[in-house]
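Continuing the batch. This is chain 6 of the set; chains 1 through 5 are on the previous pages. Same settings as before, nothing changed between runs. Recording input and output for traceability.
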Amino acid sequence: MSDSFVPGLRYSSGAQELWALLVETFANWEERINAAASDAALSPVSAWALVQLDPDHPMSQKALAERLKCNPSTVVDPTDRLEEAGLVARKPNSSDRRVNVLVVTPKGARVRDLLVERLFEPPAAFRRLPAKEQARFRDVMREAVSGEKPAQTARRGRTDRRT
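Output for chain 6:
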């Protein structure tokens, strides 16, 4: 039971307890993204949209919406704000001039780097784990997310030795 997280919660399975523990580790995510976005003079939605753009590969608003798992009309306002701030530019797609792509500007790349650094700083709970346990947890989570065993992921060249 985890009264400190959800009063009266009694786990029905180990998987439910694992999920609750992971959710609990995200307790400060909203604070973190709000603070990072505010420091960059962005809304949290615009900040997350900028994080999802690859500075080396322009993408359409439709592709960004797919990454964000939302309706394409939902990304219009945040991308307008990113463009107004000089963080992205809309340019015609070289392969289909009917489609504009979002290009991260040099200023946008710097802001994005700062956002990524702040947002993906591991929580203290993860940093306290010994490196071996961090690696084990990472491998298990990769398997849960991708459906691949850690050995399959390693063969595909995606294993990151950092913990």
